[in-house]
């Protein structure tokens, strides 16, 4: 396993639509292990492969509480098959948009089809935090960030802030 650097907004790679995984071999499982290690170290509760610059449709999630044993979940080629009419509000954050949190409204429940680490097709019905987390991570593999769900004013404000910070970092390195 290896800790991998997380790419942050405004990195344009975060806007890529990730490619479907066709082959389930050791390299894809090694990628999942790297993603889990990187997510735990951050720390975070969810990570999409594109956040470590790998544009493939892989998501990892672990919602175990701090003192509970880890409960890693891997979703390959996840797809929302159904979402509820009723909505839920959660304060979301993202490892690619550090130190920014905002409330997002999403469907409260979803059914997600995916493949597991061995390529076996599975389905999961989720509510609560897992439903939100799955939707947030599936957005990532489609090039969508949680700030895209905010009002235009809020979205433009946070994007400007991160663009400015990136320019500052570049000029310091120059
Ligand atoms: Ni995120």
CATH superfamily: Peptide deformylase
Taken in chain order, the helices and strands follow as HEEEEEEEHH
Radius of gyration in whole Å, from Cα?
Answer: 16 Å
The poorly predicted ranges are none
**CATH class call:** Alpha Beta
Structural class assignment: alpha+beta
What is the total number of structural domains?
1
Which distinct ligands sit in these coordinates?
nickel (II) ion
Q: Could you say which overall geometry the principal axes of the C-alpha atoms support?
A: globular
Q: State the separation between the terminal residues, measured CA to CA.
A: 33 Å
Q: How many β-strands, per DSSP? A: 7
Give the mean pLDDT: 97
Largest sheet strand order: 1-2-3-6-7
**The biggest beta sheet, please?**
5 strands, antiparallel
Percentage of residues in strands:
25-35%
Judging by the overall fold, what is the CATH architecture?
Alpha-Beta Complex
Q: Count helical runs.
A: 3
């Amino acid at each position: 396993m290896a800790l991998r650097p997380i790419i942050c907004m405004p990195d344009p790679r975060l806007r890529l639509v990730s490619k479907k995984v066709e082959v389930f071999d050791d390299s894809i499982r090694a990628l999942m292990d790297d993603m889990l290690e990187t997510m735990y170290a951050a720390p975070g509760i969810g990570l999409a492969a594109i956040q470590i610059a790998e544009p493939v449709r892989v998501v990892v999630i672990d919602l175990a509480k701090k003192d509970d044993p880890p409960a890693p979940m891997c979703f390959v080629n996840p797809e929302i098959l159904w979402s509820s009419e009723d909505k839920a509000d959660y304060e979301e954050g993202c490892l690619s948009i550090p130190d920014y949190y905002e409330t997002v409204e999403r469907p409260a429940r979803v059914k997600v089809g995916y493949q597991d680490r061995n390529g076996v097709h599975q389905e999961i019905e989720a509510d609560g935090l897992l439903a939100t987390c799955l939707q947030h991570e599936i957005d990532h593999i489609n090039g969508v960030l949680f700030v895209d769900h905010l009002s235009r004013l809020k979205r433009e404000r946070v994007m400007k802030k991160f663009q400015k910070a990136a320019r500052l970092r570049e000029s310091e390195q120059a």
